[in-house]
Amino acid sequence: MPRQAYVNGRYVPHNHAAVHIEDRGYQFADGVYEVIPVHDGRLVDAELHLQRLEYSLGELRIPMPMSRRALQLVATELMRRNDLTNGFLYMQVTRGVAPRNHFFPKDAKPALTMTTRQMADKGRSPDWGMKVISVPDQRWARCDIKSIALLPNVLAKQAAADQGCDEAWQVDRDGYVTEGGATNAWIVTRDDTVVTRHLDEGILSGITRLSLREVLAREGYTLEVRPFTVAEARNAREAFLTSSTNYVMPVTEIDGNPVGNGHPGLLTLALRAAYIDRVVAAGAGADSFAAREAAPA
Ligand code: PLP
Description:
This protein is α+β, with helices and mostly antiparallel strands and 297 residues long.
């Protein structure tokens, strides 16, 4: 069967999947999205991703297109049709279709699309470690919303690619790393403390970050939730990034300088293994997206 996509209530061949020219996502980037990893035919941390989707939509006053449970059923059916074993599911909700006008349309129904992408687990292999550049954070003031308006992220990541690197760490006006173009940023200090920036409207609350915090707490690692500068990251023992498509990935170079000995860090690799065991394979991630701020630092 050819690969299929889900578009507003119908499963259609991926090549023919299309939305209306006046979809507000197309016109205004008026929508949000989720990327949910799929491992061995199962969605990873699906409930947390759907809770974050509901949060993002709520902040933009876009109604949920259907319940979280129904979204999961559609996602599972699309995975079945596409024979998806490893990879990810992309889900996008926009405010819907309406004649172009900035004001919220009165009667538009949210538009829902889903696609899947097969990606061998090898694509997530940490063998080489990632190279990162630092760039000014040029985004808007609500990065906690997983908006489809990604132009600054696109430019940041392209700047990285232009320099033969994999990711761009965005830096705020005070010199602190906020997060990557599509990943959360972490370092490990010389006394083995794991550090990642606090949550607020300046970064996305990554689901991988959230579940990795659970793993850190269970395994007794020391975590400090605070900002760090590029200079601190360059001098750190280890650095890594997290996201649904990378899980936990070592960072071995920042702005052309090696981190630590320039090889993937041992603590990072141990965390990656623990994350894959507990969260990806066993499905034991964080309990709830809403509880993210309440968890001990
Ligand atoms: N930060 C940004 C800006 C992102 O776009 C993403 C993922 O796309 C992340 C962090 C990581 O989030 P998650 O772990 O939920 O994939």
